[in-house]
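Quick one, T. Sequence first:
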Amino acid sequence: MRILNKIAFSWSGLLVLSLLLVCCAAAAHAQTLSEQQVKAAFLFNFAKFVEWPVDAFSGPDDPIVFCVLGHDRVGDAIAGLAGKIVQGRKVAVRRHQSVHDAKGCHVLYVSESHVDHAEGIIAQLRGVPVLLIADDEDFARRGGMINFVLERNKVGFEINAEAIRRARLTANAQLLKLARTVY
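Structure tokens:
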């Protein structure tokens, strides 16, 4: 039992360390990494800290699909994640103009061009195992799952843990500890 606890601790510690390294590396290279690239790196790492239900994938070789709803520069940076590996799955990136097309997504970033429709997007995806993220100050408070916040030129995030649970997703406790605010 003690060995299993050490293994579980080392895995969660490794996950936290990987997110912190990306954040620290992004801060250290702030002059070379844009804010959009830092946010794309956060999205990639969020996927490392979230578990999807088995039925969210058709099979073990299915990719984890990152989708961008609308257009903005963060979405352009997310496109650079295609082909990377998360949880043993390749990352595929898709762009959509309508939330109706986004039901095959595992991670959905709502761009600035669509945040005005956040309530409708959240309502349409309620209970669907899609990690819903936006760059809108009140997104998590209004029922979204994760939103970015910018304080003193540093990117952080807020989480709505209940919205994540309703979507049948599981967020690692370490991710919740790193959030600036958990609703």
